């Protein structure tokens, strides 16, 4: 009788040991699939039983994100009333979010579907380059949009002069140029590194810090440069955002009517929501030394800014904006009329 109780109590432990053994064998099988020059993206491979659920979840988020951002671009392009600086920047942001999602998620879905988690050295560097460039571009565009709202609310009489079409194009072009220059400098440095025997990256894409932990070369110069670029491309735009909204809030508090305050807050609230999510996750992951980097925290935060934020952007910017809702309804009405 007592032996039966002991065996009955041992069953959960033995089941856990079997599960861990199967997960370890699954990861080892993935390691055996790769060549010496390849990297392994082991992000979700330790839990094979969860992968069908993750595949469905990520595929749904990817499709909704791409469709939503493309709809915003089409709505802004088709409505003459939205051909203003604010919506010009929003269309650029939606385009960047679409490219950003397409840089990461298709490879994640392919890895889960085929169970082949290998990525070539060149492919890994290319993915890292576009990830960094588009993240930096997102960062700069959010700062430009905050500046645009500052001029519109605090300097309304000078808005058309300051935010003229030429200046808007210049701001967007400068954002594209700076983001690609900063990303290319770090990618070129990373391409010179030699990597240790283990090429397994505990992440679902080629992110900067997980790759840095695998490098056998001296990374001190790279880390100094990385933190310098983080200060330039993170702290400076964030300071611009904070100063812009400090002036905006000060101006709003001087508005006498409650209706006027509500209108201004509703205009800026959507942008502030995106800024908080974006900077919160980035600072959580990247403003720390590579020695203290946590793969688990990095993966969770990465899911937020690679999948969740691009998914939420179309809803945040359209559901709280009467002009965008009108443009989207007009787009659907024109499509319906063309099909009849």
TrEMBL record:
It comes from the Eukaryota. Residues 68-317 form the G-protein coupled receptors family 1 profile domain. It is found in: Membrane. Its main location: membrane. InterPro entries: GPCR_Rhodpsn, GPCR_Rhodpsn_7TM, Olfact_rcpt. Keywords: G-protein coupled receptor, Membrane, Olfaction, Receptor, Sensory transduction, Transducer, Transmembrane, Transmembrane helix. The chain crosses the membrane at residues 53-75, 87-106, 126-147, 168-201, 221-243, 264-287, 299-319. GO terms for cellular component: membrane. This is Olfactory receptor 1G1-like. The keyword Transmembrane applies. It is a multi-pass membrane protein. Putative odorant or sperm cell receptor. The gene is LOC109261264. PANTHER family: OLFACTORY RECEPTOR. One of its GO terms (molecular function) is G protein-coupled receptor activity.
């Amino acid at each position: 009788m007592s032996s039966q109780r002991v065996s009955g109590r041992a069953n959960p432990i033995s089941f856990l040991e079997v599960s861990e053994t199967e997960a370890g064998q699954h990861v080892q099988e993935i390691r055996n699939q790769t060549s010496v020059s390849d990297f392994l993206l082991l992000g979700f491979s330790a839990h094979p039983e969860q992968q069908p659920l993750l595949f469905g979840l990520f595929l749904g988020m990817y499709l909704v994100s791409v469709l939503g951002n493309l709809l915003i671009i089409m709505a802004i392009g088709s409505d003459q009333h939205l051909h203003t600086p604010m919506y010009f920047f929003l269309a650029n942001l939606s385009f960047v979010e679409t490219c950003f999602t397409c840089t990461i998620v298709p490879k994640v879905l392919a890895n889960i579907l085929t169970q082949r988690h290998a990525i070539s050295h060149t492919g890994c560097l290319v993915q890292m380059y576009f990830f960094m460039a588009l993240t930096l571009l997102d960062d700069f565009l959010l700062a430009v949009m905050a500046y645009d709202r500052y001029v519109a609310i605090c300097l309304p009489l000078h808005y058309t002069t300051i935010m003229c079409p030429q200046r808007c194009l210049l701001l967007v072009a400068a954002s594209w140029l700076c983001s690609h220059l900063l990303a290319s400098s770090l990618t070129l440095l990373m391409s010179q590194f030699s990597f240790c025997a283990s090429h397994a990256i505990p992440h679902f894409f080629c992110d900067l810090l997980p790759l840095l932990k695998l490098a056998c070369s001296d990374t001190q110069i790279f880390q100094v440069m990385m933190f310098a670029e983080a200060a330039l491309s993170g702290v400076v735009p964030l300071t611009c955002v904070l100063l812009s909204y400090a002036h905006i809030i000060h101006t709003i508090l001087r508005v006498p009517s409650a209706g006027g305050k509500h209108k201004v807050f509703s205009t800026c609230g959507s942008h502030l929501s995106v800024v908080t999510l974006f900077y919160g996750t980035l600072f959580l992951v990247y403003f720390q030394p590579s020695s203290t980097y946590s793969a688990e925290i990095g993966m969770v935060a990465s899911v937020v800014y690679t999948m969740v934020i691009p998914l939420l952007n179309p809803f945040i910017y359209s559901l709280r904006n009467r002009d965008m809702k009108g443009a989207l309804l007009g787009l659907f009405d024109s499509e319906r009329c063309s099909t009849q």
